[in-house]
Amino acid sequence: MTAPRSADLLVGVILVPPAALTATLACGGLLSAEPVAMAFGAVFGAASLGIGYGAYRQLRSGLEAARDASATATALQHEAATGTLGHARARWDVDAASWERFWSVERRDRVAEGFGLWLGMTVLGGGMLALSREVSLAGAISFAAVFGAGLAALWFLWVTRASRATRRLVEVSDTTLYLGRMAHVFRSDRHRLEGARLLRDREPAALELTVSWPTRNGTQTEQIRAPVPPDRLDEVDALVAELLAHAGHDPDA
Asked: What residues have CB less than 8 Å from 176, skipping those under 6 apart?
């Protein structure tokens, strides 16, 4: 599980103030002419470079994601205006009760993923901060836990944003899944469809697409799910096989 690229911009903005603060402390220590203060300044300088580089990478990735989202939104508006919305392979409306049940299950699953995100931020972030020896272990863990909780909460709100859509519509085109008219790209020059399946054991059943995209640190993945009415299960089974064949996967594997 990973946070979507569109959250990178927010993470980058959050990292800017700590980078500026540590840079200020570094300058003060290095310019003090006191050996101990200069040593602390060197440590803060290294920390500032690390945080600043992280902020730069997150901001750059977030801006790229924002441009992609803007282009997708523009294309969606044009398709809606011309009556060719999504060039859909499949489209269905979901009744209010099924929509609410789907998002109840989805929120529960996403809470578990968000907890994993928070735990990773707390342990890894707190440990790295404590290694600087400028903050006690308890202080480092506390800071990382609060920071991680805020980031996990923002991530949760982002990945469940379609639950607040006024139109309970699901549409799948060759490249995009529209969930409540919110576009989730699963195939482009950057995005690759890694898997598709129909989750019949969920209530209601759900279509799940696994999407990956390259980053500077490797490959990130995300699962996108959408509710499927009982009378559309056979159609979605055929859609899954079609999507997998189009992506070069063996549907029977």
From this structure: 72, 86, 183, 184, 185, 186, 187
65: phi > 0 → left, psi -120 to 50 → alpha, else beta; which?
alpha
Q: What is the pLDDT of residues 211-234, one digit of tens each?
A: 998 877 678 888 899 999 999 999
Cα separation, 68 vs 62, in Å, equals 10
Question: What interhelical angle do 137-159 and 8-30 show, nearest 10?
Answer: 150
Question: Residues 148-167: pLDDT tens digits?
Answer: 888 788 878 878 888 887 77
Give residue 3's pLDDT.
44
Query: What are 44's two structure tokens?
Result: 């803060």
State the DSSP H helix or E strand holding residue 92, giving kind and residue range, or none if neither.
strand 90-93
Taking the whole predicted model, whether its pTM rises above 0.85 is answered as: no
CA distances from 31 to 39, 51, 52, 224 (A): 11, 21, 20, 52
